[in-house]
Amino acid sequence: MRGEPRKEDLINIPNVLCYIRILLVPVFIILFLKEMYWQSGIVIMVATATDVVDGWIARHFNMITDWGKFIDPLADKLMQFAMLIMAIFKNPWISILVAIFAVKEAVMLGVGLYIYHKGENLNGAMWCGKLSTVVLDSCLFLIIVLPAKYIRNVNVFILIGLSAIFLILSFIIYMREYFKMYKEMKADGTIATKK
Prior knowledge:
The chain is mainly alpha-helical. It folds into 2 domains: 90 residues, no CATH class; 105 residues. Helix 2 packs parallel to helix 4, helix 4 runs antiparallel to helix 5 and helix 4 packs parallel to helix 6. The two termini are 32 Å apart.
């Protein structure tokens, strides 16, 4: 994010919805730890609804801001990370997804910041990222709200496997896009080459 966000950007409707989504993260964790699984599932659905609505408002009413481009994915990742960590309490095999998710996000953050520092940026989320998010969130939602007897053995491995495949696929596609941007920046002299 370049420069300080403008005051009006901080309090526009889409960004306020992002703040609400961030505040829902501890609510979800508390409900889950109290074993109120269906109620924590409702919090996930409310958070998902705010995500859909804030994106729609931002696009249709021309309220897209640099601050929003930063805070929206942050809110998404915080809820996803909370869901992953809480899901481990129901099935320890979820730690596989936590590892994949953490590596993917850390590498993408590092590469994204490097590219951004050089004056380039991806123009919003790619289709693979959105698809990966839908698959991961749906699988985690099922693991969180369903009784343990329904998510043992085969069923949980199907959900974990499906999520892992889409996370890895998304990671590969994003890295290819970043590498393409890097090559273009190198070709036009944005990135100096060593001689």
